[in-house]
Amino acid sequence: MAEEAVLGYLEKNSEIRDSGEFAAELGIDHNEIVNVIKSLHGFGYVDAQDIKRETWVLTDEGKTYSSVGSPEVQLFFAIPPEEGISKQDLQKKVEPSVFKIGCAQAAKTKWVEMGNS
């Protein structure tokens, strides 16, 4: 089916600009279209160029941060704005990794500071 689609299209048109869009329009698996084009290219029947696309996706850690915030943001929101919080109470309020990373980054960016009481 993919081969017939590619050859049929090229019989009436000079080029397929984007195999991904072409496959989507016809409801054919993109890999099948690519394999047909590579085969035709290998035999010298068509010229073909790769189109490189990069896609950024969130890691599992990134997904967590997108839903609950980065460690420094979690730490920031765990600190009451007016009265502050003791180090011990803050450690109890957030996870250990959030505390460790959050303290370092929040202090580095000067979002928080250790006060004396």
TrEMBL record:
Keywords: Ligase. Signal peptide: none annotated. The keyword Ligase applies. GO terms for molecular function: ligase activity. Gene3D superfamilies: 3.30.1370.240. Residues 3-56, 70-114 form the PheRS DNA binding domain. This is Phenylalanine--tRNA ligase alpha subunit, cytoplasmic isoform A. The keyword Transferase does not apply.
